Amino acid sequence: MKRSEQHQVFADWAARHNAILWKVARSFAPSGEQEDLHQDLLVALWHAVPAYRSEAKPSTFVYRVAHNYALTWLRKQKRYQKTFEQLSDAGPGPAAPASGGEAESQRRIDRLYEAIRGLPEVDRTLTLLYLDEVSYREMADVLGISGSNVGVRLNRVKKRLAEELKED
């Protein structure tokens, strides 16, 4: 693939599927790091464009690239945090204070993403795909699992999120 073709495909996908990248970033990173992860996802997508073979829809490919990169990013963050905690006896730093005055709907969305971040990694991506009304077959393709496994996992995730968000 020529560089100009790669640029054209990337620009199209970045525009069309930017919401996917933001959802993945919000699901895997805390609020202070979401923009950084989003930028990293864009770079990962740029590098992945030449590997696209038209075997799946572009949105499925974008999800797969974003999911895989987010998993790698999350592992790096955990290793960094563990190393930092070992080097300093202080342990993890204090949590950032919550910003006041947000609208109720924004609070509920933030709470949903917080609950999604608490899910196992594969279930996070599965939840995002479900919220985007992606078919079970495409979910299975993105995650590399069977369609029946998608259904079982989704039912468990829905129950878990419903319990966690009950008071909201």
Overview of the structural elements:
- The protein has 168 residues and is an all-alpha fold.
- It has one domain (3-91, 101-164): Butyryl-CoA Dehydrogenase, subunit A, domain 3, CATH 1.20.140.
- Helices cover 72% and strands 0% of the residues.
- It has 8 helices and no strands.
- The protein has helices at residues 3-16, 18-28, 34-48, 58-87, 104-117, 121-131, 136-143, 147-164.
- Helix 4 packs across helix 7.
- It is globular and about 55 Å long.
- The relative contact order is 0.11.
- The model is unreliable at 88-99 (pLDDT under 50).
According to CATH, what is the class?
A: Mainly Alpha
Mean pLDDT: 85
Query: What structural category do the secondary elements indicate?
Result: mainly alpha
> What is the CATH architecture term?
Up-down Bundle
Keywords:
globular, Butyryl-CoA Dehydrogenase, subunit A, domain 3, 168 residues
Secondary-structure blueprint:
Blueprint lengths: L2 H14 L1 H11 L5 H15 L9 H30 L16 H14 L3 H11 L4 H8 L3 H18 L4
Summarize it:
The chain is an all-alpha fold.
